[in-house]
Structures are given as structure tokens and as C-alpha cells.
């Protein structure tokens, strides 16, 4: 049955690289993935900017500032081709129906690459940073939700699609400094129901991590003990 399903899926989505069109079963072939500004395992699990003190641990700066997030990992730097693909994925011309298949495939590949860098193995569930109901109606889909679904499937754990609620339609974080970003999202999230101990929290792009930290605090109040941010891309020099 699995073979049959794969065959049917291949008819719908041919097994070719989303970037160069060469044959591969992954969203991107090895060469194309290597051509993107990918992030590796040799970095701090909090900021991915500095080297860690120990493999899989935090740098001195992150170690000195306790966060609601155990770690925060992105698959690639948000620049060059990655920036172009992610923007195409987040802002398709006419909603999800007009989604560019290669942008979607690259965004999914990047969040799965981030998942493979998280120290400590699979979580109990995956949760996405939600949009406010008004923003969701405006956008038509939640990009973080699409990525969270792909990651949950890849890792083989449940997606808790309604575990978090956005109580306020916060203004965009773009152009705000670190302290203003923290103020902007303070108390913006509420958890629904009880959460299992280990949660991966998914967003498309991480900048300072203020949004992820605010959502992680809500998840921890609802029972999560270890919340790890998993994102497709990270803004350089945040
Ligand atoms: Zn390729
Ligand atoms: Zn760090």
C-alpha cells in the first residue's frame, strides 16, 4: 500500500528537486541544499551565532540569559535564495491556492533540516506560532502552521494545531528593536488544554526570538517543561 501511495503521490508531485529539476526523492537535491546558506550543528543552540561551550549547548551569552526556550534552531540564514524562497512561501500572490511549489518545498525542507539539528531527539508534539483570527482571515493561511504540519509528519509525532491562541493582533515585529519586540508580544499568547513535557514550537523566520519566547511561556504555564523553537530560517545580525 505504501508503494502504491508513493506511486500516486509521484504522479501529483514528481520526485524532482524543487530548485534544479534533477531527480531526487527529497524536496531539494543534495547540491541545491548545499548551495543555500544552511546552518550546521557546530553553533550555539540558542542564537546559532557563536560557538557553543559544549557540543549541543549554549554560548556564554545565551547561557547567561535564561529563556523560556530550551533551544532555538533554524535550518538556514534568512538571506539570498533562502530569503527569496521564504518570502514566496509566506506571501503567495493569491493565497495558498497560488502557492509556488518550489517555495513551499524549500520552506518545508528548511524546517525539517532545523528539526534534525535539535539536540535530544523527537518531542512529544509540535505546535505552531498562531496568527490572530483577524490576521488569519486576511492571509488565508498560517505559514508557521504549514511548516509545523510538515515537521510533525517528518518526525512522526502529533501536531497540536489548536494548542496556542493569539489573543492580540500584535503589530508586525519588523523594524522594532529587541526590547520593543518583547513588549509587543508580551501576553499575546494563551495555551488551550494541557501540554505534554517536550514541545517543538515552529515559526517561519526567527529574528530575536521574542515571539517564540512569549509563546513558550504560555506553553510552559500549561504543562510543557521543555520548549524548543524550530524555524525555517534565522535573520542574520539580530
Ligand atoms: Zn537541485
Ligand atoms: Zn548563543
Description of the structure:
By secondary structure, this protein is an alpha/beta fold. It has helices spanning 2-12, 30-35, 60-64, 80-90, 101-117, 133-139, 143-155, 178-185, 210-221; strands at 71-77, 125-128, 164-166, 189-191, 198-206, 226-234. β5 (198-206), α9 and β6 form a beta-alpha-beta unit. The protein is globular and about 45 Å long. The mean pLDDT is 89.
Blueprint (SSEs and pairs):
Elements: H1 2-12, H2 30-35, H3 60-64, E1 71-77, H4 80-90, H5 101-117, E2 125-128, H6 133-139, H7 143-155, E3 164-166, H8 178-185, E4 189-191, E5 198-206, H9 210-221, E6 226-234
This protein binds zinc ion (2 copies).
Low-confidence stretches: none
Structural class per helix/strand content?
alpha/beta
Question: Helix segment count?
Answer: 9
Strand adjacency order, main sheet: 1-6-5-2
Query: What kind of sheet is the major sheet?
Result: 4 strands, parallel
Bound molecule types: zinc ion
Helix content: 25-40%
Rounded to the nearest angstrom, the distance between the terminal CA atoms is: 47 Å
What would you call the shape? globular
